[in-house]
Amino acid sequence: MSNTIIPFSTARLRISEIDFCGWLGQATPGDCLEYHRGFLALDGMPMATRLPPKDRTELLKLGRRAMWAAEQGLAHLVQRRHGPDDFSYLAVARRKPKSSPVSLSALLAEEVA
Amino acid sequence: MSFSPSPEQLHTLLHEADAAARSLVRRMRLPRHDLEDIRQDLITDAFARLAAFDPARGSIGAFVATVMAHRATRIMRRVIAERRMFGFEPTSIDAPINDGESDTLADTIANDGGLGAVWGQAGEGASTSAIRLDVERCLGALDRRDGVLCAALTTKSVDELAAEGHGSRAGLYRRIQTLRGTLLARGLAAA
User: What superkingdom heads the lineage (chain A) (predicted)?
Assistant: First the structure.
């Protein structure tokens, strides 16, 4: 049994959720963004104390937004491993999917849910 | 003590105002069309102070000259302060390009060069159509429920929607914050 304890490195919030959305909106297909470096599953946990609470909350929102972007077909999400609990989380922009336009006047007639 | 000027004294007042206004325009290199405004400013100020005139202490001409000199100094300081603030001599957009011509500076500035364009206001024609197409494209990519909320917010505030029972204020603001990111990710930035 090893007696060596590998300490978790300190993570930091690199980009906010809204900045990620801003990048996504203006990115061309193939553009790549490292939206987090660390270990996302651990960095978002309160007991891990790798990030201050405010940054952790923002990181969770960022993670959810990145997943949303992948589900909407706006980005591919990939990871690059550097070492123990050290990953680069990358978003690769995709071509924006086509959607049928909806006129504002059509929506105005409907009731707010 | 109230004082009512005689016709001769009034003539003196107007003469002093003409001289002071011309002197100020010349010294400050102000546009010629400012002469009338400055003359009126000086006359108005002098009339407001006529109640303080005491004929036993001096002539109306000397009194008015002193009053107008003080007023002219205040006008000059205001002009200098404006020039310092703006870095150049401000010119009215309605000023003629050349004296005697009917064309004004406004006629030479395109809509894209105006202050509205600097602040992101849509110009006429093609840019307005492009924005409308972008908005409709993004609305088509939204969940129907979110699209209806966006449309409702064009005519009602969050407080009004909450008062009508369409959710709590906090809940509506949370949805708006999420929508802001969604629209941004679709390429539609805030106006």
Answer: Bacteria
In B, which residues are within 8 Å of A112 by CB distance? 148-149, 152, 161, 164, 166
Q: State phi, psi for B148 to the nearest 5 degrees.
A: -65, -40
The tens digit of pLDDT for each residue in A31-44 reads 999 999 988 888 88
ipTM of the complex: 0.79
User: Is residue A99 within 8 angstroms of chain B, CB to CB?
Assistant: yes
**pLDDT tens digit sequence for A58-112:** 999 999 999 999 999 999 999 999 888 889 999 999 988 777 777 777 777 666 6
Give the minimum alpha-carbon distance from A104 to chain B in angstroms, rounded to a whole number: 6
Beta-bridge partner residues of B170: none
**Residue where the block lists tokens 């993004």:** B138
DSSP A69: H
- pLDDT at site B140: 83
| A18/B147 CB distance under 8 A | no
Phi and psi at residue B96, in whole multiples of 5°? Answer: -70, 150
CB contact under 8 A, B151 and A101: no
Query: What are the residue ranges spanned by the domains of chain B?
Result: 7-106, 112-185
pTM of the full structure: 0.54
> Which of B139, B184, B188 lies closest to A104 in CB terms?
B139
> In this structure, what token pair is assigned to residue B111?
């809509």
